[in-house]
Amino acid sequence: MALISPSRRLRRTPFSDGVEAAGVKAYTIYNRMLLPTMFESVEADYRHLKDHVQVWDVAVERQVELRGPDAGRLMQMLTPRDLRRMLPGQCYYVPIVDETGGMLNDPVAVKLAEDRWWISIADSDLLLWVKGIANGYRLDVLVDEPDISPLAVQGPKADDLMARVFGDRVRDIRFFRFDMFQFEGRDLAIARSGYSKQGGFEIYVDGTELGMPLWERLFATGEDLNVRAGCPNAIERIEGGLLSYGNDMTDDNTPHECGLGRFCDTQTAIGCIGRDALLRVAKEGPVQQIRPIEIAGAPTPSIDRAWPLMAGKTRVGQVTSAAWSPDFNTNVAIGMVRMTHWDPGTVLEVIAPDGARRATVCEAFWL
Amino acid sequence: MALISPSRRLRRTPFSDGVEAAGVKAYTIYNRMLLPTMFESVEADYRHLKDHVQVWDVAVERQVELRGPDAGRLMQMLTPRDLRRMLPGQCYYVPIVDETGGMLNDPVAVKLAEDRWWISIADSDLLLWVKGIANGYRLDVLVDEPDISPLAVQGPKADDLMARVFGDRVRDIRFFRFDMFQFEGRDLAIARSGYSKQGGFEIYVDGTELGMPLWERLFATGEDLNVRAGCPNAIERIEGGLLSYGNDMTDDNTPHECGLGRFCDTQTAIGCIGRDALLRVAKEGPVQQIRPIEIAGAPTPSIDRAWPLMAGKTRVGQVTSAAWSPDFNTNVAIGMVRMTHWDPGTVLEVIAPDGARRATVCEAFWL
Questions:
Q1: Which residues of A touch B126 (CB under 8 A)?
Q2: Are A139 and A73 in contact (CB under 8 A)?
Q3: Which of A50, A239, A362, B47 is a plausible cystine mate for A292, CB 3.0–4.6 Å?
Q4: Which residues of chain B neighbour A134 with C-beta distances below 8 Å?
Q5: Is A262's Cβ below 8 Å from some Cβ in B?
Q6: What is the interface pTM, i.e. ipTM, of the complex?
Q7: Best mutation site among B125, B140, B302 for testing chain A: the one with the most A CBs within 10 Å?
Q8: Cβ contact A36:A234 at 8 Å
Q9: Going by C-beta distance under 8 Å and a sequence separation of 6 or more, which residues neighbour residue B139?
Q10: Closest Cα partner for A354 from A312, A311, A298, A292?
Q11: In 10 A of CB B339, how many CB atoms?
Q12: Searching chain A, which residue's CA lies closest to the CA of residue B306?
């Protein structure tokens, strides 16, 4: 791992003081902001996440806020997912596509009211696309990045910890729904969501000044639950098949290639900018698609570029995320594979930096 | 400094193998790509840059390419600088603003032909704004990010090194002009430009596969010129008053606040999206502006957030870049200061993490 030079451009978060005090060991940069990647070790963090409860600084999930009479119309222009039945209080995972159907982001849309939405973004300046579209189509909507910073509480004991701070009503929040809760006299949206498969919540912390008080309250309240600072875990998210925009897919890929065809209602989401292109894709089907891949041998080195997937001398895809899984005792990976070789059980070769290894296309992620 | 975890999302460049072999010690992330920040030490790199010649991997200056009949019209919509007299072969520094006059980027526009432009961007996904505007206004133009990676050759011996590789004709390139030169049978645009005040060139390397051959040719050819791998230098760029988007300014700031009013032809650049807002700003003048700031005392710590500038108990601005300058024997800095306190000679206090220090507003940068 290399060192990173400090600069204001790589923004701190409302929780950075807590993250540092908890002994963060490494970061990534995500939306021009610091995102922790490791506290004790990736393996120890993984074990703890699966057994206990962690508090994650995911302020990097910046919000794009849409406000005004055309907010709903604009939201539908951005995504091929049909939003007509979505109610305030719901969260939808929404692929965002350009006019060719290329993925620009894969965020979660949060519907606060008919005329007010948040888009909780992955790693690209989606704000600029949304502002450009709103301006170009002369929509009656305000688009900006408010001072909202998500804090995630993840792991099997997340309900218990959250109930102690926000009351038992948090237990009633259903998956991908949110409700409003008070903290220090302020109303905060809390959703049952998060970038792990261990269950938990995301708190949309409204105002930088609330960050550290909430962080400290969670840790003080959860001491006997063995609460720790954590972060999205490379092993756990690959096991669970949670994609990473910029790693597993880019704007070169359609949602169908990413296995997100079920979020594309191209027959009904007719307001979507990329609808025509995706209708074509839906008809013909993608020629390559995301697959779970098992890589043989000892733990793979860190992955910092796409590793080619070969069938003999022909390149038939690439691996873009990989990690050693202690629970499944193998290297778990995510790859994009051409249709000629994407059937489960197909044995390929992956060219890792330390040599070629056997790579097997799997039926399902490791859940 | 913290460690950064490797990932495909933090993209390598065509020159990364060379950068690593040259012993890079630290990076920043810029446009989701690795940008070296230090080789020997920031001070040693600084000395060498001012005395010799360096090759910089600035592939992070991604290009937004505009192609088609509406390319020129779109380019003018993006910036308040009047482009009507700009000729193919010229480069213009162009503030890019949204409809409120807020800075979205401060790139260099490269006019290849009437219907073909590159925008060589600073750190924001300007591609998304440009694509959104092109789509919303239904312009007849293709917008994408081509496989172009700038490589800079900077320092007093830059002309000599470049002439050896590309011939003496490179010496004739005027400041902020470019011409076409051959390398391995390929035509490359070479401009006299770069993010230092030591003189030099930027080579727009067209095709990843050309990256390492060109890198190696420059080093093999320049051995007796003491050529080294380098990078934009924090000290030198502050001395020279070269602003950094995301550090010294954000989308909260107008070009006028950034001291870029001379690039705003609000009377004539009537196609610009932010023109109306900037006309208002030009009339009334900004209430805060970028200033060179001298900070007293020992070398300041690294700056990773804005440091408040105080006049007694009133906050009157902030410092966003700072470094110890060996040549000027003081801490040089860039700050944004309110008009009540921006006159040269005004003595303020800056709140650095290790305590308050005397901060003096200067007349000019250190050139």
A1: 128
A2: yes
A3: A362
A4: 136
A5: no
A6: 0.97
A7: B125
A8: no
A9: B68, B70, B73, B74, B133
A10: A298
A11: 13
A12: A8
CA closest to A125 among chain B residues = B125
B142: contact with A, CB 8 A cutoff: no
Q: Please check whether residue B137 touches A, CB under 8 A.
A: yes
**For an interface test with B, which of A7, A60, A78, A303 has the most B Cβ atoms less than 10 Å from its Cβ?**
A7
State how far the Cα of B12 lies from the Cα of B10, in Å rounded to an integer: 7
Please state, in angstroms and rounded to a whole number, the distance separating the CA atoms of residues A138 and A320.
39
Question: Which has more confidence, A2 or B290?
Answer: B290
Count of pairs with CB atoms under 8 A, one residue in A, one in B: 169
pLDDT tens sequence across B184-242:
999 999 999 999 999 999 999 999 999 999 999 999 999 999 999 999 999 999 999 99
Tell me how crowded residue B270 is: count the other CB atoms within 10 A of its CB. Answer: 13
- Evaluate whether A269 touches A79 at the Cβ level (below 8 Å): yes
Flag if B98 and A131 touch (Cβ within 8 Å): yes
Residue from A314, A307, A296 nearest A247 by CA: A307
DSSP 3-state assignment of A8? Answer: coil
Which chain A residue shows the shortest CA-CA distance from B78?
A132
List phi, psi (to 5°) of A363: -75, -45
What's the sign of the alpha-carbon dihedral B119, B125, B126, B130?
Answer: positive
DSSP per residue, A16-70 = HHHHHHTT--EEEEETTEEEEEESS-HHHHHHHHHHS-EEEE-TTSPEEEEESTT
Q: Look at residues A127, A119, A131 and name the one whose alpha carbon lies nearest to residue A94.
A: A119
The enclosing H or E element of B291 equals strand B288-295
Q: Could you say which of A37, A38, A304 has the minimum Cβ distance to residue B8?
A: A304
Q: How far apart are CA B265 and CA B251, in angstroms?
A: 19
Q: Domains, chain B, ranges and CATH?
A: 16-61+147-238 (3.30.1360.120), 63-144 (3.30.70.1400), 287-367 (2.40.30.110)
Residue in A100, A128, A243 to test binding to B, most B beta-carbons within 10 Å: A128
Q: Which residues contact A360 (CB under 8 A, 6 or more apart)?
A: A293, A294, A296, A345, A346, A347, A348
How close A214 comes to chain B (CA, Å)? Answer: 22
Residue in A with minimal Cα distance to B246? A9
Contacts of B306 in chain A (CB under 8 A): 8
Report the distance separating Cα A141 and Cα B269, nearest Å.
Answer: 26
- Residue B362: Cβ within 10 Å count: 18
Q: Which amino acid is at A127?
A: L
Q: Does the pTM of the predicted model rise above 0.90?
A: yes
Distance in angstroms (rounded) separating the CA atoms of residues A237 and A235: 6
Residue B117, CA distances (Å) to B87, B91, B108, B112, B143 in order: 11, 10, 10, 5, 10
pLDDT tens-digit map of A199-235? 999 999 999 999 999 999 999 999 999 999 999 999 9
Task: For B54-67, write each residue's pLDDT tens digit.
Answer: 999 999 999 999 99
Whether the CB-CB separation of B95 and B80 falls below 8 Å is answered with: yes
Alpha helix locations (H) across chain A?
16-21, 42-51, 71-78, 126-136, 158-166, 211-221, 234-239, 275-284
Please list, in sequence order, all residues whose beta carbon lies within 8 angstroms of the beta carbon of residue A146, skipping any fewer than 6 positions away.
A63, A65, A118, A206
**Mean pLDDT per 10-residue section of chain A, whose length is 367 residues:** 94 98 98 98 98 98 98 98 97 98 98 98 98 98 98 98 98 98 97 98 98 98 98 98 98 97 93 95 94 98 97 98 98 98 98 97 96
